[in-house]
Amino acid sequence: MKAFWPRLLTTALTALFAVSASLAGTIHGSVVNRTTGKPVPNTDVDLLSPMRGMALLASVKTDAQGQFTATNDSIGAGPVLLRATYQGVSFNAFLPPGRPQADVEVFDVTKDPKTIVPASHVIIFQPRDGKLIGAEEYNVKNSSQPPVSYFRTEGNFEFAIPDKAALQNVTATSSLGMDVPQASIDKGKGLYAISYAFRPGETNIRLSYELPYPGNAATVKLPATYAGMRLLLVAPPGVTLTGDGISAAGQEQGMNVFLHDALAAKGSLAVSVSGVGAPQPTEAADGQSQQQGQEGNSRTQGQQVDVAPPRIDDLKWPMLFGLAALFALGAILLSRKQVVVAAALEAEEAAPAPSKKATKTAKQQTSVEAVKESVNANLDSLKEEVFRLELRKQAGTISEEDYAREKSRVDNLLRDLVRG
Q: Is the pTM value of this prediction over 0.85?
């Protein structure tokens, strides 16, 4: 029975890609300014292929009504990233395979720092290979009315890392759901900034760093950049966190959770960390033990355990059956696998020229494998979303109303996927 669902998935995906191939070639769309509600004429729109390392498929301009049409043989055969440049800022939209219509939303740009409010701050510690890995996540809200985007080229979001820490990477994830690597601006003395266009809604800023961990123990001085945010500290079993004002708050999905009241701006908190942590491999749906791959972002840098509720893994294969709903999210997640897919395509191009039929079959198989990978990434994304939502509730950084709304949204997504 277990083999039935994978075979059904492969067959369905092959059929869907065959249908989408017939729609390949042309995309019609528009660019709309959501601040004013009006179309945006004469603006540049680039169409990029996430499956080919963000290769440029087409570049067009909108007409007087904000409409555009782009043509390329590769359009429709895979997901497409649409990027419109407005007031010097890039705004993106994702288009699943086979969909010929797309709209790109842009916003007026402001430099007012009051546009955004950092709402919560989570810090995860994970010993690894004689080092202490720190992973932090800021939840940032933009509730501007009318809706505007906040951006400054000199840096519009600052964060500080502990003394002796070596910054590894920084990413930003907006409501589109894609992690976008960010270039950090070093302002000295452990203070950094990024220049990122904060769209209306919520954005998660994630960062990771390495700290010395001699004798499996260290005292970490955590600096505060923003006031009013209650701290949520997380560590795997086997790792102890102590410090003034830190209180244990039990476990959440197998991780130890600790709380601390909000720090003053430019204040700090000394945390003593000790222990190596217990290894906790994840179990895949087929019963084989798998370790989560490193994605080069703060989520995987900071966590080595499966933090998903078991009910999501139980629904794994039924969720795969909801392909129509999955493609709406799959376009985003496919872009996170661009290195894997691009490598496969390059290998195909380097091989001797096969027949047209063999080439078509090989491309379909490559596309199917890419979507299978995106399915697993989609499940990981859902698991993370549930985990972060529960952590925010426990930390008291989300209202009951917002929690209920977000939980309902996730439940509806799962329900839709199961129903197909």
A: no
- The strand pair at 116-128 and 26-33 is best described as unpaired
CB 397 within 8 A of CB 360: no
What DSSP string describes 89-157?
EEEEEEE-TT--EEEEEE--EE--GGGEEEEEEEEEEEEETTEEEEEEEEEEEE--SS--EE--TT-SE
Interatomic CA distance for residues 19 and 44, integer angstroms: 30
Structure tokens given for 213: 């961990």
Kindly report the average pLDDT of the chain as a whole number: 74
* 387-397 pLDDT, tens digit each: 666 666 655 65
Superfamily grouping for domain 25-108:
Carboxypeptidase-like, regulatory domain (2.60.40.1120)
Topology annotation, domain 113-274: Immunoglobulin-like (2.60.40)
DSSP character at residue 243: -
Alpha-helical (H) ranges within 251-399 are 298-302, 310-314, 316-320, 323-335, 338-350, 356-395
Q: For 34-88, where are the E strands, in sequence order?
A: 38-39, 44-49, 55-61, 67-71, 80-86
What is the 8-class DSSP label of residue 3? Answer: T
For residue 366, which of 47, 14, 11, 22 has the smallest C-alpha distance?
14
